[in-house]
Amino acid sequence: MSGVEAAVAAAVRAAAASSATAVVVAVAVGDREQVRCFGRTGRGRATACTPDTVFELGSVSKTFTALLLSAMAAGGELALPEPVERLLPADWPAVAVRSGGPVRLLHLATHTSGLPRLPPGLLASALPTWGGNPYAAFGEEELRAALARTTVRATPGSRYRYSNYGVGLLGRALAERAGLPYGELLARRVLAPLGLGATTCAPNAAGRAVGHRHGRALPPWRIPGLPGAGAVRASGADLLRYLRAHLDGHPAGLAAALREVRRPRLRLPGSGDELCLVWNRRRSGGRELYFHSGGTRGFTAFAGFSPQESVAVAALANAGPVLNGRFVQAGYEVLRAAGRRA
Known about the structure:
InterPro entries: AmpC-like, Beta-lactam-related, Beta-lactam/transpept-like, Beta-lactam_class-C_AS. With 342 residues, this protein is of the alpha+beta class. The protein has helices spanning 3-17, 61-74, 105-109, 122-126, 140-149, 164-178, 182-194, 227-230, 236-248, 255-261, 327-341, and strands at 22-29, 32-39, 54-56, 96-97, 151-152, 211-213, 216-218, 233-235, 266-267, 274-275, 280-284, 287-295, 300-306, 311-317.
């Protein structure tokens, strides 16, 4: 068994251990690609998993928001150093900043805004549905209320702190500048140009797998107030196509944006890794590995690519992350193995 095959097998075992019934591992090396599918989209007599089966991406959605930001900047609609409050409605509360400031779009895309991981008030509103979907009841009014309660104590840009709130707010700001809902804006500016026909923010996407947590089937993930942080879902074939665009720089209309999301912006504390626009970058054996993972209550996702060997890997499972779960690490190992093979 080759290193790539062994790594794929390990990913499938890790997904099965977390109660997944459907797994897709898609690998591209140069001009060659393979989308390997395992299992069925749900329990019982569900449909067999295929390259077009749609999975929730969770925080891998943030990379789509970063590309949308980069595309709008390349088109002159905004600038990365622009304060986020300039993009939001005039009657919305502004984030209070204790020192320095303001919070800029670049800060949101690099987790250096100083915003907390979750918006104020989300945990309290989420308690009734915490086991299923803590974001379902967090909509526009809740986001406005959260902004009014938010105080940034560290100088924006001075400290890394991973924030769903921050990237979700970025997605909302981009939508406001364009005058379109986030999902429609993403479809027009990113998904359609890349030919990602099975990628969407719609919860009831056609051909979707059923998510599971500890063996229990869950309804589709909904994140109405912060879609830019985790609302995207895609098939394995689409996600691989998306990653290959980061390698090839095509289509031409997104070439500049695809280059910019790969540019390192800061070094992560306590690590040799760097952060680009949302993407993590790691140097390993003379190679550069870009990667991000994500999870909803019912799905886990890994996406990564390596430009030197023209390698891309997407790994998707229809089971939510579990304590001591190995699926994300297994996806990363597929990326490493595919690079060695190249």
